[in-house]
Amino acid sequence: MKMMKKLAAVVIALMLVTSLSVSAFACTSIYVGSDLTEDGDAYFARSEDLANSYNKVFYVSPAGNHKAGDAYTGCYGFEYTFEKDSYAYTAFRDDNLGGECPDCNSEEIDPTHEHTPYEAGGTNEMGVSMTATVSIYPNDEIYDADPYTDAGIEEAEIVTVVLSQADSAKDGLDILMGIYDEYGMAGGSSIMIGDESEVWYIENCTGTQYIAMKLPSDLILVNPNMSLFGLIDLDDENVIATPDLIQVAKDAGTFVGDEAENQINYRASYSEDYMDWRMPNCLNYVNAGYGYTVDDLEYEDFCLSNVKDGQIVPLYTNIEADRVFTLQDVIDYYDVERVARDANLDIHVFQLDADAAPEIDTVEWVAMDDGAYTVFVPYYPVLTKDTYAPYQVTLGEAEFVTEEPDGSAPYYPDTDWKYKEGFTVQPADWADSMYWSFNVVSNYVLYVDESQQQTVKDAYAQLQADIYADWAEITAAAANAEDMDELADTVTAASMEMAKQAHQTAVDLYAQISAK
């Protein structure tokens, strides 16, 4: 994985147009400001995409898991000392429950060393939520001028470090920017970090330069692995950027902007010049009237800017939704063609309510596997003490074989990375795991019996409706709760029960659709 990320700056243009390579670089995010939603809540979300049949863990990292003064060593060379005891936080992470990290695949790093492997997103007990990351990539010239740093923080370590220590979204931003300034960055990232009062968006394409802005409440952004910062006036008090952002681009010969006005088109200056194949679908979902294709999209259609007629204005995009967004609209974004993929590993949606009590102002909706065939389960992450046990199991890896198996474990026809035709065999005890249960069902209807797709969708939709109804009762009761310890027990148990229902539904569905 480290090698893939180091090579990304060189080969990303090729990888993004080859269907067999794109999965490692295909995360997708969305932000919808509170002015644009039916309930007045802000939403930001991300799908983590890497590969089909790759287990993920969803759990609560306990308070004090890292102690002040503890040294943290990641998978790729980043080392850090925690400044205080860590907060509790929810997180999705890669599975090293068997004792070996799947990310530490270089000869220099022992895969059994004590660390946390690739936490992708979560919320801490202070109500700080973040997702890291949707990877973005530099152009060749800017990368030569400002390459990634071996000692820099990699996206795999950002959530672990920031959620362990952040008291607020702005504090988390400051922690991350401080790390960027001291250590640099080992990969390109776009990140969102928020709390009930604000959400920040950060981009870095190179090793030492970055830019960040607070997202306004009247804005929508969608991001399928693209740099979104267009023309930005760096004199805006809402901009946080490295002092040499323009100079580094000038040194690389890539600068686009107006140096005299301290304005830079960040995407044009720093990012690889490509139009992601998913962007038309993302935009057309927000507004069906667009009818975009890759060929007729312009960057100005969706990029972020704070400049109009040469003057600083509030941050905006040219995206206009054709409706007021609901929670269901945000969730259905992950059922959009090309956004929903067999390489989806997990999806996390953060719902932020500025008017709620601190303990319940954030709801984290989580789902496993393909966004087209899954169920979202809600948590009050600030209060959640633990997650449903089948989120936290190791069953071993899927196995690619060239001869058709005997059928003792679920399998589907597949082509491996060496372009050999064969079959991927999923773990025999798949039904013990939340991730594998949804993965088995989605692969069956995608690659074994497509006629069962609507059966699965209908069953999941009915369960999702039931979960919404149950959650409405829970949130109504939570709003009037006085004993937070008692409420924590109640909502932890309720979320576990909903997760159990989702898990059992997937297991039962596989028995039903595969019976013939």
Outline:
By secondary structure, this protein is α+β, with helices and mostly antiparallel strands. It has 2 domains: 2-379, Penicillin V Acylase, Chain A; 389-513, no CATH class. It contains 11 helices and 24 strands.
Structural overview:
- It contains 11 helices and 24 strands.
- The chain has 516 residues and is α+β, with helices and mostly antiparallel strands.
- The chain has 2 domains: 378 residues, Penicillin V Acylase, Chain A (4-Layer Sandwich); 125 residues, no CATH class.
- An 8-stranded antiparallel beta sheet has the order 3-6-7-8-9-10-11-14. Strands 12-1-2-19-20-21 form a 6-stranded antiparallel beta sheet.
- The longest helix is centred in the C-terminal third of the chain and has 30 residues.
- The N terminus is likely disordered.
And the CATH topology of the largest domain?
Answer: Penicillin V Acylase, Chain A
Q: From the helix content, strand content and strand pairing, which structural class follows?
A: alpha+beta
How many domain modules?
A: 2
CATH class of the largest domain: Alpha Beta
Mean pLDDT: 92
The main sheet orders its strands as 3-6-7-8-9-10-11-14
Using only C-alpha atoms, the radius of gyration works out to: 22 Å
**Number of distinct helices:** 11
CATH superfamily of the largest domain: Penicillin V Acylase, Chain A
> Distance between termini?
39 Å
Going by CATH, the architecture of the largest domain would be 4-Layer Sandwich
**Proportion of β residues?**
15-25%
Number of strands: 24
Global morphology:
globular
Specify the biggest β-sheet: 8 strands, antiparallel
Low-confidence stretches: 1-24
Helicity range: 25-40%
